[in-house]
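User: Assemble these into one structure.

Assistant: Restating your components, then the assembled model:
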Amino acid sequence: MGVQVNEQTKTEHRWGMAIDLDRCTGCQACVAACHAENNLPLSDPQSAAKGRAVHWIRVDRYYEGEFPNIRVKYMPVLCQQCDEAPCEPVCPVYATYKNAEGLNVQVYNRCIGTRYCGNNCPYSVRFFNWFDPNWPAPLDLQLNPDVSIRESGVMEKCTFCIQRIQRAKGEAKEENRPLTDGAIQPACVQSCPAEAMVFGDLNDLESKVSRLAESGRVTHLLEELGTKPKVFYLQKAE
Amino acid sequence: MAAGPEIIPYSEVRQDLWRPLSGASPRYVAMVFFLLAVSLWGLFSWGYQLHEGIGVAGIQRPVFWGFYLVDFVFWIGISHAGTLISAILRLTDAQWRKPVTRAAEAITVFALMIGGLFPVIHLGRAWIFYWLIPYPNSRLLWPNFRSPLVWDLTAISTYLMGSTVYLFLPLIPDVAQLSQHATGWRRKLYRALSLGWTGSDREWHALERAMKLMAAIILAVAVSVHTVVSWDFSMAIAPMWHSTIFGPYFVVGAIFSGIAALLVVMAIIRKTMHFERYLTPHHFNNLAKLLLLMSLLWLYFSVAENLTVWYGNEPKEMQVFGARARGHFAPYFWIMVFCNFVVPFVLLGIKRLRTIRTATIAGVTVLIGMWLERFIIVVPTLARSRLPATWGRYAPTWVEISISAATFAVMALLYLLFSKLFPIVSVWEFEPHPEEED
């Protein structure tokens, strides 16, 4: 497959994710994998009760029906990497902006901690470092060297595992070959036992995620806000 | 209430108004030390927050803004006392303004100095607050002019500079007079501040022109400042923040709380400095009527805001509306309505009840009510985020409460010191001089 340049964005890649809600079992493997991959601070019941827990991806639960005929639906929610991201214009210091590959990136070193982006994110997927992070031994020895540690006072959020994207792109370039579909797997995608999550290049019309994005089952979260998310939720229409 | 102010001989005026400048009663000194202690405690609390991380405050996800932003909007609102009262009255040449303007203008400057601190206090990394200032950094990157926070910084610094000039201009003839009578360091200070004022016709005309011009400019700036502050909220897509009414609503609320603050301050000045002959029932009556008018305007805007949301019945907005009017935040909401409308309406609307005492009481309740109003605007919207799974709570910690309390102490302290250095009631405006345009 050749490299296709999207006419609209003129960039080589445009990353997106499809999440099949009919497959999701709510097992939270994605949450655990994300914690390990992205050096997320640990939280305990106290900090969670205070609203200080950090999960770049979380599993929201929706209950349908009356007891005992109840159905639970799970919805993994992560940064939707919006094309029209409400968090971006409000940042006074360009700490969050759209990069050339359509990712909504967060530059920790620029962030001064106004937390305006967090208020303006309708999905509440932005997290703040209230204190310097700290990992109880021996967890401090297993930090991922590819991911920076965030200091107290800055915002953070899902990056679509940009470190893995960069590594795969680098390897492909070294070996002088195009990126293959599926070569990049963010930690959540890689760890999903139900294979409910698919990551890939939306500019590559042959990629699995592009084909899923064309599926009739596609919905977006809070679509009515016009944020144009690049996370596609697949579910059977009732 | 009594008729217009009596005519007092100028020499007596000067003597009366200068009296508080010299000497310091034990009560004054005790008050200064008490306020200083509270202020220092606030400073310590902020230091603790800087050292430990902003997590020592009660804010959390999704309520990323809490007490600090409430205080910020509150103090910027208070700052509208001076400009609006003094500039409108100066431009319309209302003679009764004379003993009121300086007290009002001083509130503006001090409230702005305090309000302007809060956006810094609330930053996650407050030590690099200057990254907000519009100049290119070492990588030639300017701040993001699309961000309402940059508009905010621009508006507030403009307002602070403008209102400082506006406080200073009418002070010049007073300090010039003082420099002739003071001794020691005071003489040096007053002489430096008088900028070589001799009282010539040309100087009077220039001052008169400058004050008129600044009054016009500061009015426009004041309106725009609180509009920009409101846009911090209404530019966001959060339910019940994203509202076109916020600009004028905030400006009205600001003037409302500003007049309340002015009434309270004037009552204190009148009592402690024995200015009964200068701050007369006439002044309180006029300001009380203004407060009543603003209370009705505030009610009008509040009804307009809430009725449209309720009638529209949009689910996400109704979650916030419900939390405000009948849910978790309902006690604060209804106390706000009581303080901002019921109390002023009854105490000031009934002519027989309208006295200096009731005007002061209404001023205090309006201050409480307007602080709650800002709380009601900032917090419930964030606590009821769009996805119910992320709903949150907010309760302040001792750090936020200490810093908030300290700002009131700082305000009082600055006011005490200012009124010891400068006549808090403008002296020269009582002088019948031919140069003054009438």
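Strands of chain A lie at 15-20, 58-64, 71-77, 96-98, 104-106, 127-128, 155-156, 197-201, 218-219, 231-234.
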